[in-house]
Amino acid sequence: MAFDGFVTKCIVSELNSVLINGKINKVFQPNKNEVLFGIYANGKNYALTVSIESSLCRLHLTTHTKPNPLQAANFCMLLRKYLIGMRIQAIHSYDLERIVKIDLEGYNELNDLVTKKLIIELMGKHSNIILVNENNTIIDSLRHVDMDSHSNRDILPAHKYEYPTLNKTSFLELPNFETFYSSLSEQDLVHTFIGFSHPFLQSIFDQLQIPNSTNLSKEQWQKVYEQIKQITHQIGSNQLSCLPYTFNQKQDFVVALAHHDDTLHFNFFLDDFYYEKELHNQFKSYKNSVLKLLLAHLVKFEKRLKNINEKLKECDQMETYRMYGELLTANLYQAPKEHVTSITLPNYYNNNEPLTIPLDKRFSVADNTKRYFKKYHKLKNALSVVSLQKADTAKEINYIESILFELEAAQNITEIDSIYTEISENLLGVVSSSQEKGKKKKAQPQSSLLPEKLELDGFRVLVGKNNKQNDYLTTKYAHANDIWFHTKDIHGSHVILKNEGQEITDAILVKCATLAAKHSKASQSSNVPVDYTFVRYVKKPSGAKPGMVIYTNQKTLYVNPLN
User: Fold this and answer.
1) Is the N or C terminus of the chain more exposed, i.e. has fewer CB atoms within 10 Å?
2) What does the angle CA 396 – CA 400 – CA 406 come to, to the nearest 5 degrees?
3) Own/partner pairs for 446-449, CB < 8 Å, 24+ apart?
């Protein structure tokens, strides 16, 4: 991410405009990498968030709440002990380094005036939050680091705090362009100067319409220098803005020359940007976890189906064993008394053609006859049982595939929550508290069960987004005369066209069918078959999985969802 030295400098400038003399009255630690400070300053309450997560390290004010753990972490308790009640005296950032120091002042339990410093290092995987006393001795840090962990300094309680050393040049200390030009080496500017990031530099090249950052002429480098110099001169003014920027096909942000009127422009921009980013990451992580769970169950049932098919293949020999037994029984009078490995008999099932029947030499012909009949009856009984098992397993696989479609189409955490609830009840065997008590609630449906509502050509159309919504929509919400749509033999959403006395035209039927195709696994296909019928002809069999229905009196439309 582009939380570079320029962004850090602009954030600190805005924080100094609103938080000086502010009193820290709350400290939370929502997760292991983030700390939230509640600050009362100038008659207003602010929330300052500090995150040291490697890919999302940042510092800014926030308006988004996060759940507070029931049990506070040790570092959070330590910060509460030392910082609650203290006031912010100053907020510093040095050069263009991503290091912020907050000077704090307050009274201890003996009513003596004491000072503390909170140092925030925003350096990717090396980020940290460090509390030091007036003697620059570390009280504690969110992450403990020592020389043994390949660090060039110790970040441990009771050790002296040392600023990290960087073998880079300070752009702010360059006297002129000639010094800048002479500082250029084979490395890029990010590895040459403090606080530069690749997205920031690429945005400079884009603004100056310089196609390549390598092999530039001196005149081009001078334009780059002047542009960066102008940005550094505007830090702290309303002539710099934080703007969205796409870098390496990923959504990012950069500091650029642009006017803004918001006192806390950078803070609020980053607050919204990282909030959306975290939501996306949580959504992706949650989705992957549920997907992993579903695929594990799918593999289990597919393995079960494979074993069932192998048993059914064995049952193919069932009639052969019966025939062997009957032929042996019919010819027992002329069978040899000694034990043999095979016997050839006329097969009256095939025009008395000679048939060689294998025998187990350990047993007599009579005993072999009994063994063949025993195998026949065993496979006959197995066939009926295994056939039922195959049907049940196929239903389970079909159900899991329907949930996989739902998961693929899910667009937010709420929808995945509904899917996980369904999985818990129907795959994991988790029983809800209402089911345990035998209560059936007939109150208003939960919001997660309410379908998506649309309007097409003056008609109301409802779309279910998951199996539970499909069940509720079709079996409870829709009326008998409403029209139900679903892709033929393809996983997808139930779509209901409300029949409210209007004339149902062919055009609206095609539009609803197209909508059903778009909300199906065949959304990227063409000429998709969609069945439609009145809701009164749609039934849910007893004991069927969520979303599974049977229907009659249907007609079929072929539509193109990509149109």
Assistant:
1) C
2) 150
3) 448/414, 448/417, 448/418, 448/421
Strand duo 342-347 + 250-257: pairing = unpaired
The 10s digit of each residue's pLDDT in 268-279 is 999 999 999 999
Query: Of the candidates 374, 364, 428, which has an alpha carbon nearest to the alpha carbon of residue 400?
Result: 428
> What residues contact residue 431 under an 8 Å CB cut-off, 6+ apart?
425
Q: What's the number of CA atoms in the CB half-sphere (13 Å) around residue 151?
A: 18
Q: Which residue from 7, 12, 2, 58 is spatially nearest to 35, judged by alpha carbons?
A: 58
Q: How far is CA 199 from CA 252, 274, 385, 419, in A?
A: 8, 16, 64, 38
Nearest to 238 by CA among 225, 250, 255, 224: 255
Pairing between β-strand 113-121 and β-strand 495-497 as defined by DSSP bridges: unpaired
Q: Is 229 exposed, middle or buried (0-12, 13-18, 19+ CB in 10 A)?
A: middle
With the C-alpha atoms ordered 462, 465, 470, 472, is the resulting torsion angle positive or negative?
negative
Give the residue extent of every domain in the chain. Answer: 5-166, 171-257, 302-409, 447-559
Q: What is the pLDDT of residue 363?
A: 92
Percent helix, strand, coil in the chain, to 5, is 40, 25, 35
- Convert the pLDDT of each residue in 301-339 to its tens digit: 999 999 999 888 888 888 899 999 999 999 888 888 888
Q: Which of 561, 547, 558, 559 is nearest to 404 (CA)?
A: 547
- Give the SS3 label for residue 205: helix
Does domain 5-166 match CATH 3.40.50.150?
no
Share of the chain above pLDDT 90, in %: 61
Q: For residue 439, is pLDDT > 90?
A: no
Q: In the numeric block, which tokens belong to residue 297? A: 């169950």
Cα first-last separation, the chain: 38
What band does 108 get if pLDDT is binned at 50, 70 and 90? confident
Tokens matching residue 196? 């530069």
